[in-house]
Description:
The structure holds two protein chains of two kinds. Chain A is mostly helical. Chain A has 20 helices and two strands. In chain A, strand 1 and strand 2 form a beta hairpin. Chain A is globular. By secondary structure, chain B is mainly α. Among the domains of chain B are: 239 residues, no CATH class; 71 residues, no CATH class. Chain B is built from 25 helices and two strands. Chain B has a two-stranded antiparallel ribbon. In chain B, helix 5 packs antiparallel against helix 10 and helix 15 packs antiparallel against helix 20. Chain B is globular. Chain B starts with 6 loop residues before the first helix and ends with a helix. At the A-B interface, helix 7, helix 9, helix 10 and helix 12 of A face helix 24 and helix 25 of B.
Amino acid sequence: MVALISLSILGVFxxxxxxFNVNTKAVLTISIVTILGVLGFTAGFHxxxxxxxxxxxxxxxxxxxxxxxAILGSTAILLLFxxxxxxxxxxxxxxxxxxxxxxxxxxxxxxxxxxxxxxxxGIEIMSVPLYILVGSQKKNLLSNESSLKYFLMGAFTTGILxxxxxxxxxxxxSFDLSTIQSYFQxxxxxxxxxxxxxxxxxxxxxxxxxxxxxxxxxxPDVYQGSPTFITAFMSTVVKIAGxxxxxxxxxxxxxxxxxxxxxxxxxxxxxxxxxGSITAVFQxxxxxxLAYSSISHAGYMLISLLMVKNVESEAFGAIFYYVISYxxxxxxxxxVIMAVQKVKDSSSIDAFKGLAKANPLLGIIAAVxxxxxxxxPPTAGFLAKFYILKSTVESGYVWLALIAVTNAIIGIFYYFxxxxxxxxxxxxxxxxxxxASSLAxxxxxxxxxIGILVLGIFPDLVYSIF
Amino acid sequence: xxDFAWLIPLLPFIGFLINGLLGKSLPxxxxxxxxxxxxxxxxxxxxxxxxxxxxxxxxxLNIHLFDFIQAGTIYIPFDFLIDPLSILMILIITGIGSLIxxxxxxxxxxxxxxxxxxxxxxxxxxxxxxxxxxxxxIIMFIGWEGVGLCSYLLIGFWFKNQxxxxxAKKAFIMNRIGDLGFLMGVFFIFGTFGTFTFDEVFSKxxxxxxxxxxxxxxxxxLLFVGATGKSAQIPLFTWLxxxxxxxxxxxxxxxxxxxxxxxxxxxxxxxxxxxxAPTALTVIAIVGVATALFAATIGLAQNDIKKVLAYSTxxxxxxxxxxxxxxxxxxxLFHVMTHAFFKALLFLGAxxxxxxxxxxxxxxRMGGLxxxxxxxxxxxxxxxxxxxxxxxxxxxxxxxxxxxKAFETNIIYWVLGVIGxxxxxxxxxxxxxxxxxxxxxGTHDQAHHLHESPLTMTLPLIVLAVLSIVGxxxxxxxxxxxxxxxxxxxxxxxxxxxxxIHHTNHLSHSTEYLIMAVSVVAVILSIGLAYFTxxxxxxxxxxxxxxxxGLHKLVYNKYYVDELYDKVFVQPIMYLSTSIYKFVDIxxxxxxxxxxxxxxxxxxxxxxxLQSGSIGIYVLMMVLGLISILAFNLIP
Lengths: 466, 636
């Protein structure tokens, strides 16, 4: 509650600050401090202390708290890393902050909802600022194009989502998750077709938000066209929120009739992983490559929905660990991309040639984060995949595990394409040595790298919190 | 006092870290002080521990450092075992090690890799101490592998010379063959006793009453394979002469005094197992005496001063294995000790000569150096007399003890051993006469620059010369009026094993005097023959190009063992390896991997087409996806 209110105030504040030309550095500092403060408050006050509000429409249980903290933490780190990106932009900087913060407010509602109406509200509050942010480079055709694409398809999905909610309401007579859940428990064996159609509509809408196949087509186009900072935001923070909501809705609410939807998830997960990693092989633009990689990672996270039969804390731990390791690795890698883009104005893999020689620190950050994304030990990404695959096999989905492992191997190929460019190719010009990073960036980046390695060695720090 | 034993290996390790990490920027004098200082401190600690043992008592102390491996039923602590055997070994290692470190400070002075040399040397001593201090076979194995690594690094120290690199690789690979045997032996030990710890293995083994069980013969022969690798016995001896490519202090420390005796230490440590397998002991004795004789004959015809000493080392190690084979474990260690003294002395003396001759190692180019290098000459002479076994010097006592024990077991061992001793005396005096007497045969330039070595080099020579003289009195046998001090000191280690050996025929004193007299006379005659050949007749070995024939050619070419190994093992393996590489690697594996890669790439190209950029198609795909989900789940 405090989180929602204080962040909303922060959003309004930074929007007004833009009007009065307040120093952007100051606004940024205030934003980061507020976000971290809210994070600390949420973690300290709400952990192990369930807290319902708005007639039980929002419930801050441990699950919601963990995801809220992940969202806030990732946002704070991303904002810290924004220097390279914003140094090229002259106007409307505080408006960016404000839109991002509003979007985060929506995300918190998405991971803490206990009512389908709240889920819908959260998704919309998150999405509308994103449509604007994607198109924020007004003079850039690609940016406009992706904004329009994202908006059109998002609007289409909103329709599906609302239709699903309506159908479920029509059958169960409630938006409330616990009421719906008990309805499922009573009618577990013979669910009416209307209810099932509603459920699958919700599945499709959520799949769109997390870019799972075959609802993923917007992802590469939008990721490539967006400003890089927004791409980083979408592929990390937005993804955490999307999965937070997806998992909360299906794992908790729809668990009683899991037999109905697990096959669909199975096929979608296999399809998502495969399409993501195989298509990535062909890409030469790093943003597009990471878009496909994020699709592939979404497939792994989808697998965690299949763990309904497992112990709850294990399933929570596995998905949360995956989300955390994926987002810190991605953020670290995106910070390198933003730094390179500042001097190169290109996001093709060729732009990264010789980076390790020109700037060893960025080289190491890229190497560790790529290793983690590819799932190599001793990084967090390795254990994240391991936990997911372990429970997949334990739940009896051996074939799915095999498909996932095969794709992980293919993944190594395209991730290493980037790594090879960074470490083993000669730079074409001297521009890479012009990258100058602030001390704050260096410290946070090194901490991230250490975090990736520490999580890979002591996974229980995150895995066992539930 | 013994509780501080963990410091003994730690100090050289710290020396290694300092010199290895920072040595490049430190002045040479500091590098030498750190490297040598760490050794001397270790030696002082070892001496303190030795003297802290109360008179008439023994010591058996297990020092627990930390738990190394704990998995299921396997528990391997990182423990040190302090007992008479390990104390003797650490005294030898740190004592000789200190002297050789000091010597290196002078010998390697001009070398640009000075700090690296000291770092490697310290690291070697660390691993060697681990090897002898470990209280189970795993720690021993860590040390065993570590010394192999350091030996490799130091043989190839001058890595710009490809021959030296090859020598280093040869040493490493032949050691690995032995290591495999050792490792398998250790696995069998674990399979039989369920533990790696010495105390537990040996106490369980001492309860066994039946001799020559197949499992014990297997274990012992496998361990012995390990020992033949590390201690250069037939058939794995050919690496040691090539290892002379390393700097001379390395040859003295690693390839004469310490590392090559690791095999003897290991067998002496496991004596109880070997006692239970008399057949294995017989094999060891035969291999030992054969090596002693075989290497001695090769030593007769070599012209490189270090090569002669190398073959001499192989030969002396053979004597030690002979002693082990006849169950005289403490005699073997006695010879380890005296050999460490005089062989280190001989190598360092040779180093001093090589230093004076500007890296000339061929004895045909030397001669008459006695006047120019007086200290080197005198100490080298003492070493030569000691190894030849002249009465009163250390080599006499230890070698004689081995020969007497061999006589007790089988007279053939004794005969062969005496022949070996005669050959030893001859080839050693051949080197001595050709190097230090006669006229100088080197270039004019070399003659001009001949000089005695600095004090850092001559001091170790003098100390070792004194030890080579008095070393024998540490274990003076009762027939000379001594009390066999070393044997008593070590007896607790061998007690359980000796209890199982049935000594049938003890030699009477008169027999002992007689066999002693025979070998002394034979040796003196042999020295006389060498004097006659190289001083009176002034003969010098023929040049490389000249025609030699028959036996001489065979011996000169080391019985063509290297060529034989090359034809029988190396070339077939290389051939097999190349063919497998060409077919399995290139055709099968590469082909498979590449075609999978190409397939995925092609698939990627096709899948990419779906991403057309048109929203209409995207939405269509979404709708199709939704419809198929619904159709699949709702249509019964």
